[in-house]
TrEMBL record:
<dbReference type="InterPro" id="IPR027417">
    <property type="entry name" value="P-loop_NTPase"/>
</dbReference>
<dbReference type="Pfam" id="PF00071">
    <property type="entry name" value="Ras"/>
</dbReference>
<dbReference type="InterPro" id="IPR051065">
    <property type="entry name" value="Ras-related_GTPase"/>
</dbReference>
<comment type="similarity">
    <text>Belongs to the small GTPase superfamily. Ras family.</text>
</comment>
<protein>
    <recommendedName>
        <fullName>small monomeric GTPase</fullName>
        <ecNumber>3.6.5.2</ecNumber>
    </recommendedName>
</protein>
<keyword id="KW-0378">Hydrolase</keyword>
<dbReference type="InterPro" id="IPR001806">
    <property type="entry name" value="Small_GTPase"/>
</dbReference>
<dbReference type="InterPro" id="IPR005225">
    <property type="entry name" value="Small_GTP-bd"/>
</dbReference>
Length: 240
């Protein structure tokens, strides 16, 4: 049974997005930390154990530096278990996506590519997708390197971060703000043909959004504007 939670802080009655919340679907295999990520963003707390999620929508209002008022988010925490798996409506619903894998679980990393292809097939326009490699605090259990994560994200035309939901609230907040800014940037770009003329460097894009605090020791790539490779081309490039 889908559930809904609401966290609204502050005395501001109106949000910057005028009652049209930013809808983010969080995807990824079971136990990669999707619920931990959502709960950490909304409550700042890391809570160790959760029941496996069926599907939960969180409504959350927070301030984003640079925006005049608070921003309303709606975050869909999806079920990672195969039997409850992804429906097209969960993808159609969203404005932007976070795909989570665990750096300690190669299967969850392999799943990222499949999820991105489902997003591409379902959405009829380019959308902001952030790939998050979680659990970097588990240094000795790491199975997926940062370079592999970066390479995959670049090939799939996505932004990328490695984080530890357990260790850092700042990283978690940054992830949500990053996907929010990517989404705003894409919307601006698609409604302003001039911006297609030259793609911007990551430094320039960061310059456009200097408000997002950028914790140290983090890798990030911006949304790339190259066409998405076909699956077979992509697979062979990974083996190079
Ligand atoms: N060490 C470590 N453990 C984490 C981290 N993030 C989440 N976990 C743990 O990973 C386990 C799974 O976290 P969940 O948030 O329930 O994972 P999920 O992806 O929502 O799982 P489903 O609901 O089954 O789809 C829990 O035991 C968390 O405490 C992290 O950054 N570091």
């Amino acid at each position: 049974m889908p559930t809904m939670t609401t966290f609204q802080f502050g005395k501001h009655k109106k949000s910057t997005n005028h009652g049209k919340p930013v809808k983010i679907t969080v995807l990824g295999q079971s136990a990669v930390g999707k619920t931990a990520l959502c709960v950490r963003f909304m409550t700042r707390r890391f809570i160790g154990e959760y029941d496996p999620t069926l599907e939960t929508t969180h409504q959350f209002r927070t301030f984003v530096d640079g925006d005049p008022g608070p921003v309303d988010f709606e975050i869909l925490d999806t079920a990672g278990q195969a039997e409850n798996y992804l429906t097209q409506s969960q993808i159609k619903w969203a404005d932007a996506f976070i795909i989570v894998y665990s750096v300690t679980d190669r299967c969850s990393f392999d799943e990222v590519m499949r999820l991105k292809f489902i997003i591409n097939k379902t959405k009829d326009r380019e959308v902001a997708v952030l790939i998050v490699g979680n659990k970097i605090d588990l240094t000795f259990d790491r199975m997926v390197s940062k370079e592999e994560g970066e390479k995959l994200a670049k090939s799939l035309n996505c932004s990328f971060l490695e984080i530890s939901v357990r260790e850092s609230y700042d990283d978690v907040k940054y992830a949500f703000l990053k996907v929010y800014h990517d989404m705003k940037h894409l919307t601006k770009r698609t409604s302003s043909p001039k911006l297609f003329v030259r793609s911007k460097s990551s430094a320039q894009i960061r310059g456009l959004t200097p408000e997002v605090p950028r914790p140290r020791e983090r890798s990030m790539s911006v949304v790339h504007q190259v066409p998405l490779p076909q699956m077979d081309q992509f697979m062979s490039s990974l083996n190079e």
